[in-house]
Amino acid sequence: DGGITQSPKYLFRKEGQNVTLSCEQNLNHDAMYWYRQDPGQGLRLIYYSQIVNDFQKGDIAEGYSVSREKKESFPLTVTSAQKNPTAFYLCASSIDGTRTDTQYFGPGTRLTVL
Amino acid sequence: KNQVEQSPQSLIILEGKNCTLQCNYTVSPFSNLRWYKQDTGRGPVSLTIMTFSENTKSNGRYTATLDADTKQSSLHITASQLSDSASYICVVRPGGGSQGNLIFGKGTKLSVKP
């Protein structure tokens, strides 16, 4: 998983609660990403950031929020507004987000809403 | 609409046999295509990247091909091993823009049996 850590590995949440997923990288990468993976579907981009203090919405940003206060960290908050949050969440980073840049993925966090 | 279709959805082979996974895309303009390997419950790991001018690229027992005219790619696995059991994801990056708009296939789940 190449220097990207995600915690916790498993997370359980009650309906109506906000929860924050951690993503840290020590690869000195400028760009970081959050994806959601559901069974039988391709990865879908939630948010991405190419530089500290800046981030852009992906295809499914509704009900999620992020911050990028430090280069190494890109936490994702799943809010109560996300209607179907149970999924596998993957964080990734890349050197600078350019054309042939490789994205390196973390081990993922499996979120289950009870 | 930019899409990436992979086939088959799942595949079971015996250890030591070869197999080929397919990826068709409708992404235009095209920048590059990657194959990722994702072990169950883990993050994807990049196997190869292919740009428009590349036809074949190998990474050990993995060989990827690209036909940019027909918009097809394949991943050939030679002399399969039990550790090859995983999902293989085809990812296409459209030309222009940032890495925020990668198009992910749904993956092919490969099971290698002894």
Describe the protein:
The complex is a heterodimer of chains A (114) and B (114). By secondary structure, chain A is an all-beta fold. Chain A is built from no helices and 11 strands. In chain A, strand 5 (44-51) and strand 6 (54-57) form a beta hairpin. The model of chain A has no long low-confidence stretch (mean pLDDT 92). Chain B contains no helices and 11 strands. In chain B, strands 2, 4, 5, 9, 10 and 11 form a 6-stranded mixed β-sheet that branches. In chain B, a hairpin with an 8-residue loop joins strand 9 and strand 10. The A-B interface holds A 1, 4, 31, 33, 40-45, 48, 50, 56, 58, 88, 90, 92, 94, 97-108, 110 and B 4, 31-32, 34, 41-46, 49, 51, 89, 93, 98-107.
Low-confidence stretches of chain B: none
Report the structural category of chain B.
mainly beta
> Strand portion of chain A, in percent?
over 45%
| Alpha carbon gyration radius of chain B | 14 Å
